[in-house]
Fold this sequence. Notes:
This protein is mainly α. Helix content is 53%, strand content 9%. The protein has one domain (7-229). It is built from 13 helices and four strands. A hairpin with a 5-residue loop joins strand 1 (58-64) and strand 2. The longest helix has 23 residues, at 176-198. The protein is globular and about 50 Å long. Residues 219-223 have low confidence and may be disordered.
Amino acid sequence: MIKDTNSSGSSNLASPWCLSRWKRWMDIIIASLTLFLLSPLFFVIAFAIAITSGKPIFFRQWRLGRHGREFQVQKFRTMRAAVDGCIGLTQDGDSRVTRIGRWLRRWKLDELPQLYNVLKGEMTLVGPRPDLEQFWLKATAADRRILQLKPGLTGAASVAFHDEERLLATVSPERLTSFYVEQVLPQKAKLDSEYAARATFRSDCVILLQTSLVPFLHQRSMAREIDELAPR
Length: 232
């Protein structure tokens, strides 16, 4: 069990914008508007999942949120129901991923239900992605400082590691967890903590824009990440 991080430490890690009520209002307005505008897409995705792989439509998993408190993150189900509950890390080409699931993951549409987590205040639009407790238990104390922040739907590390599954595919299954905890997780924590320290309304808008465009533009930047981090 991760010890609850001291809330007073948040001010040392985050910019005034990250801790402001205006950021919360931004979350509520954008999440509400997006849910309203994309509601037809939600029904289409739910119908596609139901007719291609049955129920359940949604996948729920416990992740660590701000100060190490657990909450249930919601996603559209992208894996076969029989194995979905044991997800830890997913590599590119994973046979557990359904055909519709591969498409949803490619365009990050499986993450859309987390807008409800944003409305509930468990997440924010821009922040570090929430991860599993099993990984944080093995992380260093320095990396766990990022748990002082509210987790996000997207963030600086999310953009940089947009094609993470491709990177993980370069690692053997028996080394997957150690590689993620020792190589990937520290890089994510560094990117997100550096961003949080200087975040503004404008920079959050830029991250949201990059997130919407990165499926079209990510190939070159992610290729560099893979080349730098892939085991030799």
